[in-house]
Amino acid sequence: MAKKKAAPKATARKAPKRAATAKADRPRCGLCGKTTNLTKTECCDHWICDDEENYVIFSYARNSCHRNHSRYTLCASHHEEGHEGRWQDCARCRAAFEPEIYVYYGTNEYNFDKLENPPAYEPTTCRKCGKVIRLGEGGYSQSSEGYACWECSNVRL
Q1: CA within 20 to 30 Å of 144's CA: 12, 14, 34, 67, which one?
Q2: pTM of the model
Q3: Strands, E, within the chain: which ranges?
Q4: For residues 149 and 131, is the Cβ–Cβ distance under 8 A?
C-alpha cells in the first residue's frame, strides 16, 4: 500500500511589521481617536479632528472635536486670552469663570489634560423652583435676577 502525502499545513500570513508600525505611528485625534483630517491645536499642540465645518450654527451640537476643545476648555480659553504659564495654575482663568463653569471647563471630555484637584462649589439652582441646573450642559436662562431652569424659562417666554 502506498503512503499518502500529507497536505501542507495552512499557515496564517503575518502582515509585515512595517505596516503595523506605520499604522501605530499615525497621528490620531486625542479626543475621538480618528486618524484622518487632523490638525494641531494652537493652545496645546495636540492632534485633533479638523472638523468645525460639521457644526451647524446655533444647533449647540457637540459633534466637532475641534470646536468642543476650543469652546469648552480652560486650555483654549487660557491661550486665547494670552495668559502666561499653565492653564491649570492660572489665577486669571480661575477668576474669569463661575466655579461650576471653571470646574466643567477644566474636567470635561474635551480636555487632553484635566484639572487634577478641581475646587468644590455650590450647585447652581433655579431662582424660581430651586431645581439644580448644570451650567455645563445648558438648558437654562440667565438674567440679572439669576438662573432659571428650562421649564421656568419657558413659562416666562
Answers
A1: 67
A2: 0.79
A3: 38-40, 47-49, 124-125, 132-133, 140-143, 146-149
A4: yes
